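Justification of computing resources. Each target in the renewal requires a structure prediction run like the one illustrated here; the chain below, 316 residues long, is used simply to show the kind of job we budget for.
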Amino acid sequence: MTLMEPFSGLPDRRKGPAQRYGLAQILVMAVCAILCGADNWVEVADWCKDRKEWLSERFGWPLERGRPSHDTFGDLFRVLDARVFEARFRDWIRGLAGLIEGVVAIDGKTLRGSGKKGSNELLHMVTAYAVQSGLSLAQEDTCGKGHELAGMKALLDVLILKGCIVTMDALGCQTELAEKIIARGGDDVLQVKDNPKNLAEALREFFDEGAQAGFGRLPVERCEDTEKDHGRIETRRYTWINDVSWMDKSLRAAWKKLGGVGMIESIRQIGDKVSVDQRYAIGWPRRGRPSRNRRSACLMNVRRRTGGNGCGSSRQ
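Resulting structure tokens:
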């Protein structure tokens, strides 16, 4: 789907000289400029002026009379129905999502400068980010940091995840979200902390016993990486087990699509001080076994995004 397609056919209530430029034409110009870093309508207009030849060549527009002014952009977006624009923009993103592969990270962040610290005015956004391509696929605003779950559900309702691996922090470790991801065609790797508690305890006990006595005949996949920076040496060991037959029946019944469990062990050394931390993850539907490299990449992505606090022990 081209960028012009979703914005074509929008009802245009402008009259007279205001229709000098087509509605879809102005919207596409604005989207291109903002994606290239324009922060306000003056910058949008300047970008269009500098890229006039590219716009004419790429979209076939006759721009002999120049480009819209910053006031034209501002006036149009001031009266544009934001819900209609968002729906059409998401149509375009959905078309792109079919081309997206690899890890899609869903996470919530508070927008800096959106209000006073600690107040309810702060704008909080949940974003679906395609790690490999560096694209933000969709966003949902939420009523504060404590309402991320609703935003995650809304994002999963609109994303096409075929061929993608979705990662989320411990808040997203919900059976409902896991089922949504699989229904949308994706695989999932979800971080586990102490919620749900019974699952966290089962994983902690399983990997602790495995570290001491081994995992028997269960297939184990491992990889390791090391980072050195400013006197800190951090070694991360990733373990993935694709067999969950050891798990209690009630847990397997609750997580019907569960296809494997993983652990990330981080060993950090600063001078003579050494600390060890473990965190755990679950995921992968049984209907298709992803490659070892993809599994390891997802566990690494969970480690980078979730920081140092995870389910399990931390010792020094």
